[in-house]
Fold each of these.
Amino acid sequence: MQKQDLRTWRFVLPVASGLAVALLAGGTICGLSGPAMAQQTQASSDRIWDGLKGDVFGDKAIQDDGGLVRIEAPKRAQDAALVPVDISIDPAKAPDGVKALTLIIDVNPSPVAATFRIGDDAGITHLATRVRVNDYSYLRVIAETPDGALHMNKVFVKASGGCSAPAVKNMDEAQKTMGQMKLREFAGEAGKEPEMQLMIRHPNNSGLQRDPLTQYFIPAHFIQDLSISQGDRPILSMEGGISISEDPNFRFDFKAHGNDEIRVKATDTEGKVFQGHWPLETAGL
Amino acid sequence: MPIDPLRRKLLGGFACAGAGAAILPCCLGRAALAASEGAGMALKPVADGVYALRGADELMSEANDGAIANLGLVVGDEAAAVIDSGGSLVEARAFIAAFEKVTARPVRYLVNTHMHPDHVFGNAAFRALGATIVGHRNLPRALEARGAFYLQNFREQIGDALMKGVEIVPPTLLVDERLELDLGGRVLELRAWKPAHTDNDLTVLDRATRTFFAGDLVFMDSLPTLDGSLLGWLSQMDGLAALDAARAVPGHGPVPADWPAALQPERRYFEALARDLRKAIAGGVPMAEAVKTAGRGERDKWALFDAYNERNATAAFAELEWE
C-alpha cells in the first residue's frame, strides 16, 4: 500500500503540479523553463534535490556512490528532448548486485524519470536510455543494493526546453506506429555479457502541450510500466514518467540462462498493453 | 531550430566578431538597418516580376535582425504574393519597404513555407497589409504545438527589442495537396509535401517564369536542419528534381540557383549522414557515440555545420534505427 502511494505521488502529482504551473503562467508551456526563470546552476539543482529527496526516498540515508554506480550524459545536450543517459554498475563494488536504479532529473516537472528494478540473477551492469531535460540540471542515479543501502552518482547536463519543445517531428506517423516494438541483441565485448536493446514506438506525451483544435491540454500519455523477462525470469522492469523520451529506448547487458524466449510487456497511462516476444537464438547471440 | 541558447549566442557572436573590426555596421545591427531602412535592403530580381531577398548564412541574432532565410516576391497584374515573412517584424517591415519600391500592387497572399521562426516571425506585418496567409494543412497544428516555445526561446536568442510585436499568426488558407493562387494573369502552384524538413513543408512554383520557391526543402551553403524526416526528405528528392522549374530560390543559400542542380549538395550530405549512421546502427554503436562522427566528412562544405550536424545526426539516428 505504501509503495502504491509513493508511486502515485511520484508520477501523477508531479505531472499535475507541472500542469498547474503551466496554466498559471498563462500559456507558458513548461513552467520550469525559459528566460523568465534564471538558468539553473549546479547549486540550485542541488537545492531542488534537497527538497525532493525526502518525498522520493523518505528519511533513508543516501550515500555517495563510492564508485559503485556511475551516470554519464553529454555535458551539453544536442537535443534536449533526446538526451542519451548511460548508467553503469561496478560489479566489484556491488558483489551482491543492485536491486533498483532510480533516475532523477532535478529540474523536470516530474523529476523521477524512472525507477528500474533489476532481476535477481539478471546480471545487469549497464543500462542506457534517452530522456527529456528541461533546463540545466543534475541527472542523478540512486542505486539500491540488496541490503537496502542507497548509493548516488550525478552528472550535470546543460539542456533547455526538453519538456516544452514538442519532440514529435512527424505527428501522423507517431499515431500510426504507436506500440510497435523492436528488440536487438548484440554480442558482448570480450569478457562481457551480451547486450539487448528494446525500442518501443510511443509518443510519451508530456501532458504539457495543447490540442490545436480544442485548446485543451493533451493528457499526459506515456509508458508507465515495462517488464522484460526471459521466460518467467524477470530481467528488468521500469516504472516510468514523462521524462523518458518519445519512442522509449533501453539498452542493457544481461546474463541469459537457458534458451527461453525474451518477453516484453509495456502498459501506458491509457491502459493500453503492448506485448512482444523474441526467441533468444534468432536474436543473434 | 532551437539549439541550446549559450551555444547559439556563441555562434551568433562569432559571426559578428569575425567581421566586427573591419565591418562595424554588422554589429550595429538593428540600429544600422533602421537608419537605412529600405535603402539597405535590396531585392534581387530573379526573373520577370519575381524578386528575392537573400538571408544571411548565420543563426538568427540581434545583429542580423533574424534575417537568415530567403524571402520571395511575385508580382501579378492585379496583386502580389510574398513567400515567407522573415525572422522579425523589423525584417518584415524592411522587406515591405523594399518591395514597395518595385510594385504598388497589394499583397494578396503571404505563403509560409513551414513553421520555423525565420520564416514566420514577420507574419503580423503582412496580416496588417490585409494579406491572406497560406500554409500547409499541418502548419496550424505545428504552430500551436511549438509557437509558445518559439516565442520564449527566441527571445533569449535575438533579444527583447527584435521580438517586439512578434506573434504566432497561423495561416487561414490551407493547402491539402495542391492549390493555385491567381495574382491576375499569373498563377502560382502551391504544393504540400510529405514530412521532410518539417511535417508542414509547402513550395511555390511561378508557372510564368518556372521559378521554384523551395522553402527549406532546399538548403545550400548553410547546413540543412532536420525537424521532420530524413527518409521522407530523401524519398522526395526525385519528385523535387522532376519539377518543371528553370531556377530555384532555396530557403537558405544563393539566389537564384540552377534547378535541379540546387538539390545536389544537400542530397550528398543526407546520403553521407544516413550511410554513416546506418553503419553505426548495424554495428551496435550507441547513439551518443555515433552522432559524434556521422556526417563529419561534410564539415568543410557547409556554414553552421558545428551548430547543427550533431543535432541532425541525433534525430536521424532515432529515425534510422527503426529501419
Note: Confidence is low (pLDDT under 50) at residues 1-39 of chain B.
Amino acid sequence: MQEAATGIVFTPLDWVWTIMLILLMIVCGVIFYRLGKRSESDFFLAGRGLPWWLPATSVYATHTATDTPMWITGAIYQCGARGIWYPFFAAWTAISAFVSTRIFRRSLAMSQAEWQNLRYSGLGAELLRGWLAGWQTFMNMFVLAWVSAAMGKICVYLFGWPNWLGVVLFTSVCAVYVLVAGYWGVIMADFQQGVISFLVITLVSCWGVYVAGGPLGIVSKLADLGESWRMNPFHFDGFWGLDSGSFYAMDFITLLIMSTVGGLGMGNFIDWYPEAQRIQSAKSVRDASYSIWAGGFVSLIRNSIWAVAILAFFVLYPNIQSEAEYEMGWFRLGFEYLPAGLIGIFFAGIIAIHLSTVSTHLNLGSLYATRDLYHHYINPEATQEQLVKVGRWNTLFLLIGSFVLGLTMQSITSWLIFALWLQAAGIWIPSILQVVWWRFNSWAYLSSWIANLVMSWLVVWVLPELGLLPDLPNWVNFWLLAGLVALVYIPVTFMTKPDDRDHLVRYYAMARPLGFWRPVHEDAVKKGLIGS
Amino acid sequence: MEIFKKNWTAAEADRWTVHDLLASLFGVVAFLLVTVGVIGAFLLQVWGFVCVAVALLLAWLMYRIIDPKLRAMSDAFEARQAEYLDDLEKTVRWEERSGT
C-alpha cells in the first residue's frame, strides 16, 4: 500500500483498477494504427466518416480536462449555483449545431485556418491562414502545457511525486496512441474515456452529496448557515453595477448572449477549433450537427452535477478562504471520502479526463502545423505518406514543447488569462460577421485580431495598472472591448475592397451561409450554381 | 409553413427556414433548462425535475422539426462531396493562388 503526504491510501486493488483502465485506453487507441496511417485525411479527420455519437463523445471528453473541475469548483464555491453561468459558454453549440456547424461542415475545410482561404481571397486570406495556423499550433501546445501542469499538481497532492513526473508521465502515455494512430486513436480512445469520466464524475459527486447528508441534508444545512441563496442559479447582486467582486444580472445576460448568439460565428470561442475538427470528421452534415449539439448538452449536465457536488463540499467546509484550497474541493470529495478500492477507479477517471484532452490537442496542433503550414506553404506536392510522417513529427514537437512550457507554468499563468481575453471579447462580433455578411473582408477580420490584441492589453492590464481605468467587472470589460475593436474593423471594412466575387460565389454555392449574402446569392443563381 | 414537415427536396433543405430558427431556439432553451434543472433535481427540488422534463421535451421537438430537413440536405450534399473535395484542393492551393 502507498500512503501519500495527504494521508490518502492506495491499496493494491486501487492500483489494479488504475493500471487496467490505462492499458484499456492505450490499446483502444493503438489498434487503429492501420487506419491512421492511410492518408492525411485519416490521420487528422478519421477519413471524414464518423457517426455522430463518436465526435459527440469526443466533444464532451475533450472539454473535460483536469483543470476543469478546479475552476468550476472555484466558481461555485465562490458564487453559489449562479457560478454555473461561467462555464455556460458550452451552450454556443445549441445554435452552432444548426448554423455555423452546418456551414463549416459544407465548406469541407480541414481546419479553421483553411476555411479562411475559402471564405476570403487574396493576400489577406493568406495572412489570416498563416496567422491562425501559427496561433493554433502555439495555443494547442499551451493548452497541453496547462493541463499537464494541472496533472502535475494532482500527483504532487496525491503521491508527493516531484512535479515534473506528473507533468511528463501521463501525457507521454497518451502520446503513444496519438503518434501511431492519429485522430483515429484520439476518437476511439475518447469514446471510452468519455464514458469512464462521465460515470466517475457522477459517482464521486453522488458520493459527495451522500457524505454531506444527502440532497435534503444539503438544503437544510445551507439554510442553517444562512446560505440558502447558494442553491439559486438566478440570485444576483442587482441588475447591474461596477463592483468587480459582485455577480449582477448583467453578468448573466452577457454570458447568455455571448454563449448562445456566439453559435452563429466561427472562431469566437477557444473551443471552436477542436470542435471544427470533430465537425469535419463526421460522416455527414446531419451527423456533424448532432455531434456538436449532444456534446454541448452532456457537457452542461456534467457542469451541473459538479455544481451540486461543490454545494456539498461547501456544506462540509464552509469557511475556506484560500482560492487554491477550495479549488481542489471536488478532488478532495473523491480522495478523502471514497472507500478503498474505489479510489483507484477515481484516479483512473482522472487519467481518462487528462488523456482525452491531451490527445485532442496533440493531434489538433499537429493538424495546423502539417496541413496549414507544411502542406500549404512548404510542400504542396507532398505525398500522403510524407504528410502522415510530418504529422507524427509535429505531434512529437508539440509534446516536447508542452513539457518545457508545463514545467515553467507557474510563472506564466497570467499569460493564459491574457490569451483567453485575446481570443474572446474583441473578435466575438467579427467572428460572427465573417459568417453572416458577404461584405466583411479579410482585412477587416485581420484588423479586428490586431485591434483586439492591443485593446485587451490596454483595457485588462495596462490602464488599470496605471490607475487610469478602474478594475471593471467582466461584463463591462466584454462590451467595452467589443465596442473599441468595432471602431477599427468597421471603417476598415468600408475602406477596403470586398473579396473577389467569383471566389465568394464558389464559397457560397458550397457552404450556403446564413445572413446578408444577397448579391452573392444572385450571382450564384445567374451562373447556374444553385437554384433560385 | 408546416412545422413538422417530413418530405424535403434538396433545394428546399438548402434554404434557411423557420425550422432552423425553431431548432436553434428550442436548443438554447433546452440547454438553459437542463443546466438549472440538473442542479435542482440532484437536490430533490420539484422545480429541478420540471426543468429537466421540459428540456427533454424541447429537445425531442427540436429533433422532430429539424431531422427531416437535415437528412435531405445531407443526402444531397454527400452525393457531391467527392467533387467538392477536388474543387477545395484547387481553390486553396498556395502556388496557383499566388501565381508562382
Note: Residues 14 and 73 of chain B are 6 Å apart (CA to CA).
Amino acid sequence: MAAEGGNGKGAVGPSGVRTYPDFSAPTVDKVMVEERAASLGKRSIKKEAKVAGLLLSIAMMDLTTLEGKDSPGKVTQLCQKAMRPHASPEVPPCAAICVYPKLVPVAKRALAGSSVKVASVATAFPSGLSALDVKLDDVRRAVAWGADEIDMVIDRGALLAGEKTRIFDEIAATKEACGQAHLKVILETGELGTYDLVREASQIAMLAGADFIKTSTGKVTPAATPAVTLVMLEAIRDFFYATGKRIGMKPAGGIRTAKQALHYLVLVKETLGDAWLTPDLFRLGASTLLNDVLMQLEKERTGAYQSGDYFSKD
Amino acid sequence: MARAKDKETAGASARADERENGFVPPARLSVRKAYKMLVGGQFVRSESGRYIQVADPMSLGGTKENVPWASRKDVRDAVVVARGAWEGWSGRTAYNRGQILYRLAEMLEARQGELSRALERGGLDASRAATETAAAIDRVVSYAGWADKYQSLFSSLNPVAGPHFNFTVPESMGVVGVVAPARPALLGLLGAVLPIITAGNTVIVLASEEDPRTALVLGEALATSDLPGGVINVLTGRAAELLPHLAKHMEVAALDLHGVTPELARKAEEAAIVNVKRVRTRSIDEAAWFDADGATSPRWIERFVEMKTIWHPSGA
C-alpha cells in the first residue's frame, strides 16, 4: 500500500498531510506558439553553418531501436553505428543508444570503452499502465544491467484524470530508483491533448526530479512537433529562472530529416541559448534520422545528392 | 415593372457614358490558368519561384504565359517522390500496370481536344496537332499491351554445363531521368516515358523547351488517371541547367536523353559515373516518332531493364 502513494518528494507536513510544490504553469497561446515554432524553421542555414549543425545533431542523437523484433544482432550493429556513424573522421559518435531493458547488457558490451551511453526505456514502456512496484522494478533491473540513462513514461491516464500528485510521486520514486542513472521523463505529448497540459506536465516532471523531459515514446502520432518542443523548452527556461537548475530536453519520434534536426537546434538556441547546445542538455531521439544527416553531409562534401542505398540500414 | 425599366435605362446610359470615354467593358473576364508541374501527383510551382515566359498565339495582343522554371531543388524533390513510388509501381503485377496504362489512354481520349489545342498554341497547325494527339494516345495503348508481354521476350533459359537451371529475367532499374525531345512535344514525351514506366521504373521528365505548356496539360491528365503519384513527374525548365544535377544524383539509376547537344550529353555521362548510371541517348528525327511500328518496338523497353540471371540447382 505504501508503494501506491509513492515515496516521493511530497513532503509530509507537521499535520501528517503531504504537501506538494506548486504545479501551476502559465497558459499557452496555441496560435502564437505554433507560429513562432514554425517561423524558427524557415531560416536558411547553408554551407559551414549547416555542416556544423549537422555534426552537432549527430553528437546529440539517441540512436533508438524499440521494436518487438529487436535482437542482440541488431542492437550490436546499431552500437557499431553509434560509435562510428561514418567513415570520415570528423563525424562524431552519437550520444547514446536507446533500447528496451532486456537489450541493455548487449548494448553495454558492444559499447564498452566508448563514449556512447546506454539509455533504456523502462516503467512499463510505452503505456506506463502497470503497478508502481512493477515499474520501479523495471527501472532497477535496467540500471543493474548497466543503463546510464532511464527513459520513463508517465501514466497519461492518471494525468488526464487530474491525479497530478500521483504523477509527481511516481516520477520522484522513479528518480530514486535510478540511483546514479540519469532520468528522462516521457510526457507522450500526443496523448495529452492541449499545450497547457504539456506545460503543466513539464512542470511536474521537473519539480519531481527529472534530468531531462522528453516529448514522446515514438509509438503515438503526433510525436515530437516543433510547437510542442517549444512549449517544453519555455517550461525549462522558466524553471531555470526560478530555480537555477538546467533541465535537458529530448524531442523524439517523427524526426527523420536533417532539415528537421536543424529546426530543433534553432528552437533550442533561440529559447535557451548556447548553454543548452550540448549532448548533456539536448538530445534528439531518432532511428532513421542519422542516415539522412549523413546523406546531407555527403551532399555537402561531394556536391551530389545521395541515395539511401549507399548507407547501412540499421 | 416600371422601376425595373428605369434601372435598365439607367444602365444603358451608363454604358453609353463609358463608351464615350473610350472604355468598353468586356462581356466577362476569362479565367487564366496558372500552369504547374506534376511532382508526386501534386501540382507544384517551382520552389525557386522562377518562371519562363511562353508565347500564347491565341491571345489578343500577344500576351505571354508563365510556366514554372524548375530548379535544382525541384529536381531533388522529384527524385525523392519518384524513388518512393518505385517500390509500389514495380511491385504491381505486370497485368495491373497494363490496366493502369490503358486507363491513362481513356483519360487522354477524353482530353483529346484540350491536348490538341495546347499543341496548336505551341505552334502546330490544327491538323498536325490532331494527328500528334491521336498518335500519342495510340502509343499509350500499345505500351499498355506490352506491359505483361515483354518479359517473355527478354527472358531466357540458358544452357549451362552443370546440374543447374539457369535463367535470365528482366527487372526494373529504379528512377530514370528523361530529357524529352523538343518536337514532337507530346508524342515525344510520352514515347520516351512509356517504355520506361512499362518496365516498372519511375520517371522524372524534363519537358520540351520549345513547347513546355503541352507537357503541363498532359500532367493534368496523368494526375487524373490511375497512375500512382510519383511514377511520372513532369518538370519544365532548362535541360542544360537541370540535367547535370540529375546526372550526379546517386538515387537516379539511368538517363534517357533526347535531342541533347553532344557537349551536354558528354557532361551528363561524366557526372553519371558516380553510381554507374545507364546513360541512353536516342536521336531520331521528328517523323520517326510517328512510325507506330518502329516506335513501339519492345527494344525501347529493353533499354531500361536490368537482366537478372539466376542459378538454381537442378538436383541431377
Note: The longest strand of chain A covers residues 117-122.
Amino acid sequence: MSPVDTARSTAAAVRAGERSARSVVEAHLGAIGERDGELHAFNLVTADAALAHADEIDAQVAAGHDPGPLAGVPIAVKDNLCTAGVPTTCSSKILDGWRPPYDATVVQRLRAAGAVSVGKTNLDEFAMGSSTENSAFGPTRNPHDTSRVPGGSSGGSAAAVAAGFAPLALGSDTGGSIRQPAAFCGIVGAKPTYGAVSRYGLVAFASSLDQIGPFATDVADAALLLEVISGHDPLDSTSIPKPPLSLSSTLQQGVEGLRVGVVKELLDAEGIHPDVASRTRAALEALEGAGAKIEEVSVPAVIYGLSAYYLIAPAEASSNLARYDGVRYGLRVDAPTTGEMYDRTRTAGFGAEVERRIMLGTYALSAGYYDAYYGKAQKVRTLIIRDFEAAYERCDVLLSPTAPTTAFELGAKADPLAMYLNDVCTIPSNLAGHPAISVPFGSGDDGLPVGVQIMAPAMGEATMFRVAAALEGARA
Amino acid sequence: MPAGDGSEAALLAARRPLARPYDGPRMASLSRDEVAHVARLARLQLSEEQLDTFTPQLAAILEHAADVEALDLADVPATSHPYPLKNVWRPDVPRDAGIREAVLDQAPDAEAGMFRVPPVLGEAP
C-alpha cells in the first residue's frame, strides 16, 4: 500500500497555499497509472478534467478565496453516481454510451467543497453483488492480495482508497456494499441513516434501502466527507429535512460511560470465521479498556434479515430496472417491433446476476405470491426495527463483525446463495434504515484485514463515529 | 488456512442458525415453466441453458426465504419506508426545465423533439 496523506492534511496544505492542488492530483494520477492496470479500480480516469479542476482550485487560493473543506483532495466516485457529461455505466452494458445531463447532489456538494473527482470506479453491475466480479467490464482486485476480491458492490471505490489512488471515495450501500468492501480492503466505510444523504443522481437499485456513503483511510476523514455530502436536499423526497451532520467536533470525546452491545446472533453465527469472531471480541475488549460498558444483547429478528432482504431488494430492483428498455438512453438492440426491441435490448444489456434478481423480484411481486413473499418481508422489517429499538434502550451503539470472513478468492463463490450470505451482518442496518460503519481492526491468520461493524439508531452518526474513532485509536 | 478459504461449508451451514428451523409445508418448488413465464413478464429472452441454470438457483433462494414465509405476522404492520416522513409536496407549476435537447441527445433515436421507436404493432400480415 502506498502511504497517503489524509484528506484533512491535504486540504489544510492546499487551503494554506503550502501545496498546490495540481501537485496533489498529479501524484495520485501517477499512482493510478502505475497500478490500476493490475487492480482495475476505475472504469474511467478523468485525468484532464481533474487537472483542470485542480488548476481552478489553485487559482482560487491564489486569489485569496477558500475553495472549501476538501480543497484539492482527490476523490474516486462510484460509477452509479451521475456525473454531468461524463459516462456513468453502473458497470452494465445496458447504459452503453450514456452521459447524464446532470450531476448527482453528492457530486455537486463535493465540487462545492473543493474535492477533485479523479474518475468513476468499478462495481458489481447495478450494485448487485458482494465481490465486484459481476461487472460487465471485468473484476476489481484487492490491493492487499490480487488473487482476492475487494468485496462489493463498491469494490472499485474501496480498492482505490486502499491502493492510495485517492484518499477518499464515494460508494453506495444497499445491503452492505460500502461496509463489506471497506472491511475486505482494510479501510473505513460508512452507511449513513437512510435519508441523511440525498440519493438524487444515484442510479436506483432498491430505493428503500440504497444510501450513499464515504470511504476513507481513517475515521476522521470519513466523518469529514460525510459532513460534506449530508443534509437535506429538496430533489430527494426521502431526504431527511435536517442540516448536514456534525461529526468532527465530537469525534475525540472518547467512549467513557458509553454502552456498547455486541449482537450475539451476528457474532456466534456458524458462518462467522473464528478469526473474524476473535477480532470482534478483541474490539469489544479494546472499547471496554477505553471506558465503555460492554454487554451482550440479542436482536432476535436479525436471523430473518437475509431472507427478507433477498425478497425486498430484488422486488424493488425488478421495478426500478424496468426503465431500461432501449427507448430513451443507453443500449438499443434493433428489432422489427418495439416489443421485440425491449426484449432484445434487455437480454443483451443485463448480466446474469442482474437477470437473476429481476427474475426473483418479478416472481416475488407476481399475482398470488405478493403477500407470501414481499408483503411478509416488509413486515419482517418492522420486527427488525422493533428488536433494534429494544436493544438501543440498553445500549448506545451495537457491535458485530462486518463480514463473515476476510476477502475470498476470485471465483470462490459461484453459487449465488453462498455470495448472498456475505451480507448477513450488514443487511439488518439497511432494513432498519440505521447507520453503520466498518472500522479495520487487525487481520486474520491469512494476513488479510478484518473489519468490525458499529451500528447506531437513526441519526445516531455522531456517537457511532466517536466509538469508531476510539476503536481506531485502540488498534494495536 | 486462509480465513477466506475453507469457510464455504461453514458459510453454507450458516443457513441453519441464521434461518429459523422450519419443517412445515412449503410453497411448491419453482418449475422451469414458471421461470420461463416470469422471464416473459420481465421482458428477458432466456436461453434453454439459462432456464436450466436459473430454475434451481431461484428455487434455492426462495427456499431460503421459507423462514419468512412461515412466520405468522398477521398483527405486524409493514414497513415500506424506514423513516417516518410525511408526503412531500411542492406547488405544481408548469415550467420549462430547459433540458429537452440534452435528454434527446442521449436517445438511441430521436426525431422532431420525440423519441423514435420501431413500429409498436409490427407489419400487417
Note: The radius of gyration of chain A is 21 Å.
